[in-house]
Structures are given as structure tokens and as C-alpha cells.
Queue: 3 jobs
Job 1
Amino acid sequence: MAAEDADGPDTGAAEARPDGPARREPPVPGLALPESMLVTRDARAAEGAAGSGASDDDDDLRGSALDAWWERVVSTPARRWLWYWGAPIAVTLVAAVLRFWNLGHPQQIIFDETYYVKDAWTLWNLGYEARWPEGADEGFANGENDTYLEEGSYVVHPPLGKWLIGLGMAAFGAEAAFWWRATTALAGTIAVFVVMMVARRLTGSTVAAVLTGLFLAIDGNAIVMSRVALLDGWLMLFALLGFWFVVLDRDWTWQRLSHRVVAARSGSRESAVGPAMWNRPWVIAAGAAFGAACAVKWSGVWFLAAFGLYLVLVDSLARRRLGVPFWLSGGILKQGPITFLLLVPVAFVVYLASWTGWLLTDGGYYRDWADDPANAIGAQLEWIPPAIQSLWHYHESAYGYHVGLASEHPWQSSPLTWLLMIRPVAMYLSFASDACEADDCREVITGLGNPLLWWGALLAVGYLLYRLVRYREWQVAAILVGAGAGYLPWLAYLDRTVFQFYSIAFQPFTFLALGYAAHCILGSRDDPWWKRDRGIGVIAVYTVFVVLVSAFFYPMWTGIPMLETFWRLHLWLPGWS
């Protein structure tokens, strides 16, 4: 049977693919698979011993001995439920340990925390980002958190990410570095769980979901960006949530669209363009998530735009599959405006709400810009409140800053090199450590991913491009849309000062590509035994090496003291030093 088209519904049924079926688990956790779905080498051997007359050809031997063993392990509803939810929760706990362990080290502001930690603190105290005196970083780390000025500070990112960074400090105080970073670590941990839910939705396999989550849980870039109080981890989480909601909308809308089309056809009142679908709560949720992504960093708008177009395309193709005569017109001209109204205004409201503190106070930068008669706008626009006029001017100024940012930085990198991880950012370096008595002891925190995962993910993206062209799988298309939305826009800004760690925004999508490729390599229990055994062996060996490499690099990601000789063993490429 051919692979499902890119516009097909997610029915939950098993589907055969040329190089390995993506068999779905029962939609209700706890249901045991029927025996007819399992044909193993042991079963074939037993049939042969009983004189069943089965062929001795190796291609007649299906599945692996592991399949038979696993079927016994999850043979009861309770065990299957435990696997269905217990495995993702266990991986999430691993992610939490790697992110929260020793999170308060170092007890100092590092790299761009100098902006976001202090801005977060003034947001929670003043409602807007305020300026600090020179040398405030050291004092802040020593508990002097009240030295901020009341003058507004010029910042070029929306406030939501800083509001969220400040949650831990607002609740428990700003004296300990742990609370500067706690909510960011929580965001990174939640992202691991969400990526598993997405992976299982795309593949129907808990094994594939657990592998995908494990890869993200133990990757260095994901760990570092969860342990340093920057904005990009929050951008990643909201973009990933939006993608999850888009995937959930696919099933929701298909079921209701197909029911309405069939009902209209049977009642002789079929529309040539199909029905209008307003009841799409997952699209509204996606709009809120993508709006939150924009409210963290403006680059979140690319996810909103890409998945907005994706929804229109999916809606059109769904109508085609249902035999709607003018399916393209129905998807674009009839459903398209509805989808826009469900998605974009919600995103805008969420984005605007993130500026509430700035709007309701008087001290923010440019807050009183429109009150100056010299800045008055035309009479036809006088009805616009001055605060909104000032906010619009602020956005114009910030946009000009972003597009013109081209100052040299020792750790900047071209987006062309991000997927190869040529120039990761060293965020912290200290030669003083109480844990080392040697003179050449150092502590470093470098946003360096696990090389086996990153380079494997790059190959997986290439493989998914091939699968999209050949098999037109909707799962592959969805993953590639997310990866493209996070990465491709940066290719238009090759002259800007940008950094490798920006890639965290689309990393879940490249790792979903890696998990999907691993799912295809694993194959199905219906595959010939030699193919199934080979697939299991390849993924098992790869996973073991990935875990070992992460353990080797973990000191580079968390500031664990190490000798210079050991540090140099991690410098596999010249740009890593």
C-alpha cells in the first residue's frame, strides 16, 4: 500500500511505507494489540516445527524476537498504559535533572543575561524595563537588586519573555541565580514533553516519541539554552506548542469536515466549495501560542505566517480528498478568511497584551513620545490613542535597530553554518574554581550541541525532503514547514550580527526529523526479520553513542570544573574554542 498523501487524514490506522511502516498504536491507551498484528521469527519457527508447511525463505520470517518479548511485556492494559505515559514522563524527568541540577552555578550574570535578568526584575517592580547604573551586574549577583533607576531603558525585544523569566524572581526573590533561570529551565523541560507528544501524534509510535524526546533532553544546545536566562528558549517552546495545536487541528477538522460534506451530499445540498468551518478551537490555541512566540521575539512571526499558509493548504487538500468540486477555491477563498480570523487576531491580542505594563505606566522608553506636539501625526489619525502612537513609533525604532545590527562580535556566526554547528557561543569562562587545585583548571558553558545529534538531524532533514518528494507524507511536510519557518528567514539577514544559539527556535523540528528518520529505520514488526533486526540494531547503537557523547560533553554545558587537557579533548572543530 502506498504511503499516505500529504493531504490525507490522520486516522490512527496502520499505514505501510516502502521502507518501514509507521504503525500506529491503539488510540486508547491500555488496549493490547491483536495477535494478528504480530508475526515473529519465533512464531514462524514454531509453525515450522508443528509441520505448518511455512516457507523457509528468510523473507517469510517477520519481525524480531524483541517484538515477541515486548508483546508479552505490554500484554495487559495496565502495562500498556504505564508504557504509554510512563516512558514520556521518565524522559521528561531526565530532562529536568539535566536542566535543574546545579542551576544556580555560576552565581553571576553571564553573557546576555545582563539584559534579560535585570529587565525582568524591573518589569516586575516598575511595569517596564528600566536602566541600571554602570557595574550593576556584579552588585545584582551579590544581592543588590534595588539599584535600578526609574528611567526607561531602550530594549528591542517584546516583554513577554522577560515577564516569564522574572516569575521565579517575583516569587522567591532575585538574590539566588537559581531563580533567575528556574522558569527558563522549566520551559526547556516542558518542551521535551511536548516534542514527545508531537512525535507520537506524527508517527503513532511511543518508541519514536521517546527517542525524539530523549534526543532533545540530552542535547547540549537545548540544555544550555534551558540553563541560561535568555529569551530564545521561550520562543522555542511557544513555537512548538503552536505546531502541536496545528497538528491536533488536523484530526479535529478532518472528522468534522468529512461528516458535513457527506451529510450535505446525501441530502442533495452539497456545496461546490465545501462548508465553512468555524468550530476550530485548536486553531485559536495555535494563534495564541504563535502570538506568544511573537511577544518573546519578533522572529516568532515566521512561525505564525508559515503555519497559517500551511493550514490553508491542508484545508484545500482535505476538500480535494472528499471530492469537493472546487476544492482550491473553497480552501482559499471560503475557508482561508475564516482561518485567518481564528488565527491572526488572537495572535495580535496576545502580542499586544504582553505590552500591558508599558501601556499602563508612564516610565517606559518612548512611552510619552506621542505627547510631544512635534511628533503629532496627521489629523486623519488623531483618533488613535497617544499610547498606541508611541508604541508604534517604538516598534519602528526597534525594527530599524534589528535590520541595521552589524557590529562585530567574537562569537557571531553565519546562519549558513548553524546546521553544521561551526561556531557555538561560549557564554561563560572562568579560570578560578575551588573544586580544582591545578593551575590549568577552568569552568566553561558553551552552547554546543551533541555533534552526533546535530549532524544526524541535518542528514535526517535531507532524508525528509526526499520522502516529501517521493511519498508526499503529511507528517514530513508539517515537520519541514516548522524547520523552514525557524531557519530560512535568517538567510535573508546574512550581514546581521547573529548567533548559533538562535537555532534553538527550530531545533525541535530538526530533532523531530531525526526521530521520524529513526522511526523509518526501525521499521515494523511486519518487516522481514533481517530488516527489522538491522533497523533495531542501528538505532540502538546510535542511541548508545549519543548518550555517551552527551555524558562526555556535559561538563562543557554546565560549568563543571575540568582540566585544560580534558577541555581540549572537546574541541573537535576550530570554531569550538
Job 2
Amino acid sequence: MKRKIIRRTLPVVAALLTGTAVFAQQDFKTAYFKIHVNKQGWVTSMKNITVQPHREFSPADKPSPLLSLYSSRTKKYYTPGQAKYNAKDRTMQLVYPNGSVARVSVVPHEKYLKLTLLSLSPKNGIDAVQWGAYHTSITNLLGEIIGVSRDTSEAVNYAIGMLALHDNTLGVTADTEADAAPFQYIIHTPDKKRYPLPANLHEGQVFTLGGNGISDVAFYAHKEPYYRIMYGNAATVDRQGRISIAYSSRDRSQKRQVYYSLIPNMPANTPNHIDVQPLPGVDYIGSSVALWGSPDSTALLDVVQHIVKAEGLPYPTINGKWVKDPAAYVPDALTAGGQYDSIVSYTARMGFKAISLYDQGFLRPDRGNGGYIDGKDFSRKPIRLAAGNLSHQSFADIAARSGLMIGRTTITNALAPGTKDASPVPGDSLCYQQKRLLAQSIGAADTIITVNDPTYLEEIGSWEGHATSLNMVKIGKELIHYLGVSKTAPYRLLNVKRGYWKTQAAGHAAGDTVYKLQVTINYGYDGLIPNMELQDEIARYYADVCHINGMGYYDLDGQEFLFNNGHGYYSAKRFFRLMFERAAKLGIPDIRFTGATLSEGSWHYQSIWNVGGGKNLYNPETREWGHETSQGKDLRDVTYANFYPVGMGGNFPIHAGSTVEEYEHIEAISVGLGTTYSLRLEQKSVESCPQKEAIFHVIKTWEAARAANAFPRWVKKALADPANTFRLEGIDADHWNLFTIGKDGSQKKLFARLERAKGY
């Protein structure tokens, strides 16, 4: 009877007046955004309702499924064919051609629409769901990490995006292998008139990274503005350059195998077959996203920040402000040379907040020390000062008196040789690629090791670089190195080395389990990957290290190792949630961290992304992004499009020839575009600089004005242009004069009078 009551041409308003509770189509809107969902469950309209007439962003030829279903077994998507909306409980029923029926909650809020999957029955082989993809007509900037399409032009000034409201909802398409999108280039021009595509290229075309697949600097190989490096696929483009956005969620309780590489198009990083650890209770039911649209110029602080706070998403702060607020962007100090007498003084005098003890090398996670990296009595004193060396804890106390935090570079979750859980007694909570059985018993000295099944054992461990030195299996408490497996039965491991990594060679019985371990890479990053439960403990361990040693900063090198277990961005999100939850329980502030990568799994938690350094990022002499490679241009484009501070890496060392003018320009670019950087400070080099005090003053002046949010949007646009030269002079704590400087350095003209913004 319900079907007879609903008339397909009946307007929604008329239906409401008659008291009918179920509709075949429906409009949903916020203060800035309205969508229309038709009777098939497809979004056919997405409008900016802040302008008249309302501007349409849903392509007429490309409607968007509200929710898609996906089967990893058949590699097939299912889209809805029928929809019914119940206004009373604000739910939509979606019917699919495979027989599944989804019940979705659609709740309009002031600045976003909250979509939640309440149920799916029967599942009929569906192991993943996808919100969208939502197709837009926007062709300007794609935010592939957090899923946003942006038109930053003055004429349009609008953005449409999503945020996950559920840890198992990820900024990645449902068909992405291992839930971490390929690291690669695509062709996309942000402006067809300024940067027209050559005739031999088309929008969305995929290209591999540069180099040999091992040197991360060589990855960045295209300075052309239409080569867009991709750090995710929550936003993608079609052949017309139109941007689509999508989030997905997976049933992680099921056993599955992936064929995974983060960089699958390069011979040095060919995929591996990985048996992914099932995670009971981690399912797609409850998957939830915030879908929003708003003027682009105010989207970050008006809408995205609102969603984060309203939905209780991670909200780390610095100086009392959200780390995504451009007024909270602040550079850090990066130590070099191993001498620390003046580092705290230098850093404080520039208005920075953190010191990365980069010259201390890797801090390897080792649960064996209980978080006491200098010993339980703090007797180890690696921080060198003329007056006497200090432990991390003692140096952290000195830094804290000046309002500073200290931190170290780590190798994230890599279990290095000689640490607890790795060797000489490997733990039982290690991630493995394959599990086999020992076909015949062996003694402690035997090198003939036969297995019941050779499938995939010929693959060299990891997927990154495939370091032969890390190719190993674990039997009992012994690590065994090998290279290759025989092609005919009995299948035996080849080139065997027993008692690897100083583990104890021992006898093993037929039928014992043989684990082919998942590993990292070499070049000093050597390590084993933990399974999820052990990774959880390592996340908490990092918070303990901060608490015990007074630290508040990490440079998480090897951050991509969080993807190696096959759970992709979920693994990263879970790792950082547990680290931050443990830190909060211990009563320590939000941990500030950078790392080797940026993903939807770390976006909320990660403060900065100061990866790489030097002229690969920004060259103040030539005023060029990516002088020696395209790294600066590539990372700038990624971060800016994803509402994230652009990183200039470890850079701009103060030395004998450094000048005030150089740092005026660096700070102008930093404030204008919204960047951070890690300023390399070597005490001997800094002391050799005649202009060091003036440089400190210049940097602090700019940073004080930035923290005061004193730069309006039109001023930032001028500052971001490398062709311009500026000088900033403070009047008092709340006011500044900004001058332009002529090419010869003599023409000084007032450009703007600046003042502290309300609330800052």
C-alpha cells in the first residue's frame, strides 16, 4: 500500500503537508549545501545555496550512488536501484541488485550531513561498502587524502568534501588493495588556461614515480604543474578532470589475502601476497561520514573544524589552537652537530615550540626498556653540553622552562634486531606474509628445510625495496634467513642461514608452523613488522616514552610501515588513536609529530609534514619549489589541497653567510602559503653568522604576527608569490607594518597595516 501512496512526481513539501512519512526521493540541506537523492538512491544534485541562483555541482551526465557495495571476491561494485526515505526516523532504505538491503541514517546538521550505515541484510558476499563516489563538476584542486574537491577561484569559491566519523571508515575507494592507495603520479591540471595539457596527455592518466624505486628523493621527477603526485585516492579525476570523492569501510573480521605494494608500478617495489590478520568485531556496519559543502575560503575553520569538534574527532592543539589552523602553523628547530649549549636559547628566541634532536639518530621502539630510553636511573646522558652531558629527561626540563618540547626521530613500528619482540628472542606477535608447515623435522645444524607448500615463498620479503637481507622465516623462537624455494617436491628453502639475527638455532618437529615474516627495508630501517595487537602495544609505548623522558615530539620515519600489515589507513588510524589515548591518560599534552608520509589515517593526529629537506623542497636563493627535484612542488600541491600545512623539510641552516633578507623571504612564503619547516641549527655554524641576532628577531616577528592571525587572505596571496619581497616590522604586541621592498633593496613602501585578530 505504501507504494501506491507515493507518487513519483509528488514534491517533498507536498508530501510533508499530507503527513506521509515515506518518500521515494528527498532533499537534504545544511546552511551552505543542498543535495537531492532520487528514487533509485542516487545523488542527482549538489548545490551551493549561499549564492543566487544556486550553483549546481552534480554533473548532469554523472549522478552519484549514495552508498555502493563491493565484493573483493568478484571485484564488483553494486549500486542502489531503489530508495525509500522515512522522514520520521531519518533513515533511507536502499535496495541493491544482488539482493542486499541497506538502511542508512541521513541526518542534516547545520554545516554537514551525517550519513551512517545502520544495517545491511543479507550481506550476500559484500565485504566492503563505499560512500559514493560523489561526482562533482569541480576541476581545480583535488584533496586525495581527506576527500575534497575544491574550486579556489574568486568566481566560484566552493568546496565539497567528506570526513570519516568512524575509525574503520577510510579515505580510500573500496577496491583499493590493502586499503592504502598507490603512490604514483596522475595527470591533472588545476587550471586549463594557465597550464594546458600537451596533446599526448589526458586527465587521470597514471604515471609511475621517478628513480629506481628505492631513493625517496628520486621519486619526485616531474616539475610540470599538471603532474600531480597522489598520496591517496579519496579524491580522483575523470577524463574531463572532474573531481570525485569517496570513503569506504571493510569487514576486517574475515580472513583475506592481498597482493600489495604501496608503489606497485616499479620493479623495485613489486607486490607481495600477504595473509591479512582478521580483526574480530571490526566491521563496516556503523560506518559513518560527514558530507559537506561550503565556500572554500572559509571551509577549513568554519566547517571542517566544526565537524571535528562536534563529532569528537581528534583535535590536537598547539598554542591553544587547532594544529590545522594556519595561525597555529609554526616551524621547529632541527639539531645538527651534536652540541646543545645554545639550542634552547636559539629556539625560544625565534618563537618556535619544538626541538627535534635529529642528530641523535634513530630511536628504535624497544619495549624491553619500558620507555626508559636512558636507563631506569637516567644514567645514560647523550645530550652534550659544555657544562656536562644530560639525559633526555634533564634536557627536556631545561627546554620546558622556555616553553619548548623536545623529540626524536624513530622508525615507527619497525622491530629492529637486538630489541624486545625481534631478537635474540623473537616474540610470537609478529606479522607474517604466509604461514606454512615444516614437512620434516630438523636439528639445530640442519640447512635442509622442507615445507608443505611453496606458494609465494619465493617472494622477497616486504614490498618496498625487497631487501634480500631481510628475507626470513620464523620457526618457534628461531629466525632463519633464506633466498628462494625449490621448484619441485620436496619443497625446500634455499640458501639457508640458521640462527639469524643472533637467535638460537634449535631443533624443530615436523608439522611445526613456518612463518614467512613481513619486514621493513634495509638502509638502517631493518626490522620486523608487528601484528596488530603488538602494534597496539608499541603505540602505547611511544606515549610512555614521552611521559617518562619529558618528550612531546616525534619524527616518525618509516611511517609507511604501518601499512605493511595489509590494513592500510585503518592500521595508521588505530596506531595514532592508541598513542594519543595513552598520552591523555598519562596527562601529557598532544604529541606533535611529523613523519615519512601523510595519510587519511594520520591527518587528524599529525601536526606537520616536514619530510625531506634542502633544495629539494624550497630554494630561497632561486625562489623555487623543488629546485633539484620536483619534491617541493609535489608536496606543496598535496598538502595545500588537503587543508594541511605545507612542509619545507629540514632546511635553511643559519651559517656564516646567512642574511636577514633571506629569512624575511622564507617567513613571507611560510606565512603566505601556510608552511612549516624544520630549521637546521648547528651551534658552531650559527655562532659564525654575524647577523644571527637580527635573523632571530626577524623570524620571531613574523611568527608572532602569524600566531596573532594578523594576515588577511589578500595579504597572504601576495606573500605566497615568490617574486615579491617583503619586510615586516613590529609596532607593539598587537600591531605590525608590512612593507614591500624593491628589487635593489632600497625602495620600501607600506603594503599593509596588520593587527591581531579577535580570539587570537
Job 3
Amino acid sequence: MHRRDFLKYSAAIGAFSALPLWSRAALAADRPTLPIPGLLSPDAKNSIRLTVQAGKSTFNGKTATTWGYNGNLLGPALQLTQGEAVTVEINNSLAEETTVHWHGLEIPGDVDGGPQGVIASGGKRTVKFTPQQQAATCWFHPHQHGKTGHQVAMGLAGLVLIEDNESRALRLPKQWGIDDVPLIIQDKRFGADGQIDYQLDMMSAAVGWFGDTLLCNGVTYPQHANPRGWLRLRLLNGCNARSLNIAASDNRPLYVIASDGGLLAEPVKVTELPMLMGERFEVLVDTRDGKAFDIVTLPVKQMGMTVAPFDKPQPVARIQPLRIQGSGELPDKLVNIPALPNLDGMTERWLQLMMDPMLDMMGMQALMEKYGPQAMAGMNMAGHGNMGNMGHGNMNHGGMNHGKMGAGFDFLHANKINGKAFDMNTPAFAAEKGKYEKWTISGEGDMMLHPFHIHGTQFRILSENGQPVAAHRQGWKDTVRVEGGRSEVLVRFDHAASKDQAYMAHCHLLEHEDTGMMLGFTVA
């Protein structure tokens, strides 16, 4: 055991023994302990080795096949440093091909790990890159075209922690797994046999794949004992299709200190924190009062996502402060965020997100057939094709086959950008390296939620879904909300991406991405 790990675990054990006996018994017996992903740093040769593998995990008392990186489920947290090169060797021991995409990293297209970066079953791929961006919590996950949703649902996701001197100088909580804690939040659905029940069908292609079980770091409603003081939570919405709304059960404030691309200019106090799929936020929570509370997700207004138990607040993790005192602080100022440049004369692009009306209608019919009208999340259906007067009783049950493939309808290419489903061989446009561009992403005429993600950059949001940008979303971002309105982002690409290894821009509702709502673009 490394000395640093020994000290860390000694501190954790010491903290645990500081609990009174009754509290320790409650902590041990009541809930599973929050699993903490191991930190994996480059070795003496600046190398990291990842193996994509199958394993077994237990949920609800039943054993399921799961996939993970260097383990049964999820993966380690890779610890990288700004300006230091790293070589990652990825070995694929799965029975199918996969890719590893570095979500949020500003790196060249040939190592970005999009759908072209295929690693065959039994094969390996080695990528080398140097993160130049500021400190941030990013993540890695598969990007296998048509199978991203399935592979993420099976458990493939890991964190990337980029460090820099500026963040190290701040007196933020920094003890990994003690007062600096990752919460990877995902929902899952299981079959009667206990296996992960993933389907890409008409219903999931329209509204996404969602489950009835909420997991945090791979377990249900775990607990974490932290020193009494400021607790840093690194939140990742790792769900395929479910947006979240994070809060504390006792309504204590969350102080947002970082978004997708790193630290904000200053902390932003919120009591609710909406999170799109793929987004990360870092928050500080004051636990100096020593009182236990839950991190919860509140109900969201998103089609399919109000099905029980998510019609009520759901606990993510239990926080139980210890008697020992923490040492981290909440700074008044964090980092400098540059002012937005003048937008005059810059290249502008328009990306229109569209779902095939037939998919829209048949998917929603299947949703209501399976779960009833409450699954519509109170959506105003009037004027949406013939859905406005579609009662639960008059649906074409025979033709739907419970949301499975409609006769002859190609739902695998039914989601589009600018009228086209994804074509891996034909990039949609070429961006110029190092030049700012203004992109408008429109969901007008479409009622679904589209969290839009752009590879190879951390951008600034100019307007979001037709609204001014919330304070905690004004920093560096790689995902923006598009839902029936239009969002404007200021992008710049500092690395090249060729036709063969193009960057992607796509909806991060994974089933929308898998069924066409994605485009490739080059940078030179």
C-alpha cells in the first residue's frame, strides 16, 4: 500500500472510530457504505492501463452481469495533470467492440474516442494526449455507434480528474473519498431474473431508456461518513435518459463551485441543481452542524421520468457527518473566467434537432400504454400532431406490439440534425481551428428534452433554451439544454479533427444519439 493511501485509510478508520458506538452500529447496519472509485494515476512511464471487462454485481439481492473498466462495474477515477502527457492503453475483453470517449477533454479527434475509435473484441487501442485545460471533473464512457446506450447501461463509466496549480492553491476539500467525494448517479431497470433489462425499441428511441432503481456509485442509497465541515461532492449525471434535480433533504444550500469544464469565477448558492445527462457539477455542502441528511433528486418534468418511484423525491446518498472537524474551506473567489469576446463577424451555424413525427407518436403511445397518462409528466399535448386528443383508451394496441418495432418503420435513423440522421462517413461541416464560432441549437417544433453535447471543446452558453443563462451555468460547459426552444453557444476548437476521426456533436440522451441525432465535423 502506498504511504499516501495508508494515511488516507488510517484517517478514514480514525474518523470512523470517533463515532459513538450506537452511531457506528447505525451507520454500518442501516445502509451500504458509499463505494469510492479508486484513484488511478499515470505510472513512472506516464502510462495508464484500462481493461474493458465483464463481471458480476448484486442489485436487490440478485446477481447481474455488469461491465466495467478494471473491475465489475463503473471504473477508476483517472488523475491527470494539466500540461503532462499521458498514454492510455485500452484492452477490450468484452465479446463485442467498443470505444472509449473522453467526455469533456479538449484533445485531438484522433484520440477523442468517438464512434470511429473502435476497439475490436479482444483488441486494444493506445492513445496519447496532453490535457491543457484547467482543472475539471470529466468522465469516460463508450461511444459505440448504435450501442452507446446499451454499453453505458451495462455499467461502463469512469471519472477523469484534471488537476492544475490554480485549483491546488485553493483551500477546497481535497481528501479523496473523505471530504472530496464523487457521486455517479444512474438509474437502472432489471428483469425478473435480476439482469439489466436494456431495450432499444420504439419507446426508448423516442423517450430514452429509464429505470425504476436509482444507483449512486453502483449501489442503492449508500451512506457516507465525512468530517464535520465543508463536504465537496463531484456530481455526475450518468443516466442514459433521465435528467435530475439535486437537492439536500433538509433544504440546506448547495454551493456550486464548478461545472463541466472546471471551476466557476465564484461559488453560486442554490437549493436545487438541475442536471442534464452527461453533466458534471461540483458543489460544497456545509455539514458543520453535524446533522445527517440525504442528497436527493426531486421530480423533474420530463416525459417518462415521472413514473413511480420518481414521482416523489428519491434519495441518492445519506450524509452522516462525524465528530472530527474537516479542514476544507469555501473560498469567496475561485478562478478568473474570461469575458465573452465580441461576436461580430464570427462564423455562425444552425443545428436543428428533429425527431420523426411517426417515432414521436408511436413512442409516446407505447409509453402511455405501458405506464398510463402519468408518464407524460404533465406535458401539454395540445397541437402535437394527433396526440392532443389521444385518450388512453383509443390507442392502436394491436399495431404497437407494446413499443416494439412498428412494421417497416426504421426508428434506428429516425432522429435527425438538420434533416439528416448520423452518417459516420460524411462530416457535416469543417470548423476552423482556434476561431470562435456561434452555434444555435434549436429544438423548436420538438417537445423532447435534448441535452446537447459537443466534443473537443469547453464552450460558453450565450442563451439556454430561449432564456438567460443561470449563474452556475456561465462557466465552461460541454453540454447545453435544448427543449422546445433554441440555445446559443460560443465554441472554439484548439485541436484538429480529420474526416476519419471527426468530432461529434449530438444529443446526450443516449437513445437519441444511437438512433441518429448526431453529426460529425472536422477541425483544421
